[in-house]
Design a protein that fits this description.
- The chain is an alpha/beta fold.
- It has helices at residues 14-25, 40-45, 47-68, 80-104, 156-159, 176-187, 207-219, 274-277, 313-328, 357-363, 411-423, 428-433, 456-461; strands spanning 5-10, 30-34, 108-111, 114-118, 121-124, 127-136, 140-142, 168-172, 191-195, 223-225, 230-235, 244-248, 253-256, 258-261, 265-267, 300-302, 342-344, 350-354, 367-374, 388-395, 401-407.
- It is built from 13 helices and 21 strands.
- Helix 6 links the parallel strand 8 (168-172) and strand 9 (191-195).
- The model has no long low-confidence stretch (mean pLDDT 97).
- The protein binds NADPH dihydro-nicotinamide-adenine-dinucleotide phosphate.
- NADPH dihydro-nicotinamide-adenine-dinucleotide phosphate binds at residues 145, 172-178, 180, 196-198, 203, 229, 262-265, 311-312, 342-345.
- NADPH dihydro-nicotinamide-adenine-dinucleotide phosphate binds next to helix 6 and strand 17.
């Protein structure tokens, strides 16, 4: 049977756009559907605008630090409207670039929501087309907790378009988005309370990283309350001052100007016609895929946050690219999800790759730990008491470095390179043989020589 297209991609985010372009470059006739804007969560309402906000908010500290270096500034002031307008201009530019890239590669674009009518037929508004293969790349969307008054809360989507910043913001959650936005609002001059239901933020990260970051963000003035969650949100009338009254699991109430939930994300697998076709989902609603990103229907594949793998843009890019090379480029390869480096753009930032100490101890057994907490050189002159943490986890039998963790300025920039080292199975001896760059914080990563030993009381408890 002749199809209209060799490949129809649903969703023009990172994974979908990459797969369409590469498949088209390999000679396939490709179409893509997007119901919102081209670029997906990362470009439109995720990584990119978030990082611009992080830059904006960090200036507050930079101005304070500058005084210690002899600069005198009139009291700096911040204009939210200017930031939003400039950010929107950049997002418009990127949206345009994505459209140009697709058009340049000869990918036919359909603006609208696509649904599967049968295993080879896709409907987008009034258009009905057929394709030999289909790639699902519809990403994820924020999950709100179920509680009375939740309609008064916003999530990160709305945070990028607020009319104004309130005096006080409450961020709910302890994951990537929560710590990043708590830092952003704090830097931009809001009072910030961050509520996290567990005993320490960033569950799943290395324990030292979690404790260190929690201490640093508290030093910067964020009121971080762990073991605390919201049970209800009530709107306060304008006559009584406006804002919201939160009831907390601790029994307390708290008034705030804005509640932002950063309580996880779920896959956008609804209303796509997947059940009609028999594409299987996991319990959490993610599309089930094998190591080749193939779903339960052999000619339908899925990549990115819609699947239950690692919800990061570069991972979606890797999955989309590997899919297109495999299916259309005669270059079969599976995406490799091992040792994926990632960063949290908190303030200070976190970068990590490989195993946490806890994972290494349970998976490997005997490990050597090297860690260092120090004042970055820049802050030897400033009033800041921010400390940097660096930690290496080494397999004691093979000397292989299996985990690297950094909390401090430019952690992402450092850990990207360490990701290569871990990919190459670098040993601690090779780290030690590498000459440091002086003066830098990163040199600490190749100069840590003393194995960390637990304090005597911890040893006694083991
Ligand atoms: P995360 O899964 O990282 O964090 C969700 C947080 O919400 C956790 O602290 C979780 O608590 C908490 N939570 C979940 N349900 C509830 C509830 N009902 N009430 C209160 N708290 C709740 O999700 P995010 O939304 O922060 O980010 C989603 C994903 O997007 C990330 O995992 C990451 O993969 C990606 N991302 C990456 C970024 C980067 O690379 N810099 C930036 C932003 C997002 P608990 O720990 O107890 O489950």
């Amino acid at each position: 049977m002749a199809y209209d297209f060799d490949l129809f991609v649903i969703g023009a985010g990172s994974g979908g756009v990459r797969a369409s372009r590469i498949a088209a470059t390999h000679g396939a006739k490709v179409a893509i559907a997007e119901e919102y804007r081209y670029g997906g969560t990362c470009v439109i309402r995720g990584c990119v605008p978030k990082k611009l906000f992080v830059y904006a908010s960090h200036f507050a500290e930079d101005f304070e630090d500058a005084a210690a270096y002899g600069w005198s500034l009139d009291k700096p002031s911040f204009n939210w409207t200017t930031l939003i307008a400039n950010k929107d201009r950049e997002i418009d530019r990127l949206n345009g670039i994505y459209i140009k890239l697709l058009d340049g590669a000869g990918v036919r674009r359909y603006d609208g929501r696509a649904r599967l009518r049968d295993a080879h037929t896709i409907q987008i508004g009034d258009d009905v087309v057929t394709a030999e293969r289909i790639l699902l790349a519809t990403g994820g969307t924020p999950t709100y907790p179920e509680l009375p008054g939740i309609e008064h809360a916003i999530c990160s989507n709305e945070a990028f378009h607020l009319d104004a910043l309130p005096r006080h913001v409450t961020v709910v959650g302890g994951g990537y988005i929560a710590v990043e936005f708590a830092g952003i609002f704090n830097g931009l001059g809001c009072e910030v309370t961050q509520l996290y239901r567990g005993e320490q933020i960033l569950r799943g990260f290395d324990r030292d990283v979690r404790d260190h970051l929690a201490g640093e963000i508290a030093k910067k003035g964020i009121d971080l309350r762990t073991d605390t969650n919201v049970t209800g949100i009530e709107k306060i009338s304008q006559d009584s001052g406006g804002g919201y009254r939160l009831t907390l699991t601790t029994g307390e109430t708290m008034d705030t100007g804005l509640v932002m939930c950063a309580t996880g994300r779920h896959p956008n697998s609804g209303d796509l016609g997947l059940e009609t076709v028999g594409v299987e989902l996991t319990k959490s609603g993610a599309v089930k895929v094998d190591d080749w990103s193939q779903t339960s229907i052999p000619h339908i594949h899925a990549v990115g946050d819609l699947t239950d793998r690692i919800a990061l843009t570069p991972v979606a890019l890797m999955e989309g690219h590997a899919y297109a090379d495999t299916v259309f480029g005669n270059m079969p390869r599976q995406p490799n999800h091992a040792d994926v480096p990632s960063a949290v753009f908190s303030q200070p930032s976190v970068g990590h790759v490989g195993l946490t100490e806890e994972q290494a101890r349970s998976q490997i057994g005997e490990v050597d730990i090297y860690k260092s907490i120090f004042t970055p050189m820049k802050h030897t002159l400033t009033p800041s008491d921010e400390k940097t943490l660096m930690k290496l986890i080494v397999d004691a039998r093979t000397d292989r470095v299996v985990g690297c963790h950094v909390v401090g300025p430019d952690a992402a920039e450092m850990v990207q390179g360490l990701g290569i080292a871990l990919r190459c199975n670098a040993t601690k001896a090779q780290f030690d043989a590498t000459v440091g760059i002086h003066p830098s914080s990163a040199e600490e990563l190749v100069t840590m020589r003393t194995k960390w030993t637990p304090p005597p009381e911890a040893q006694a408890a083991e």
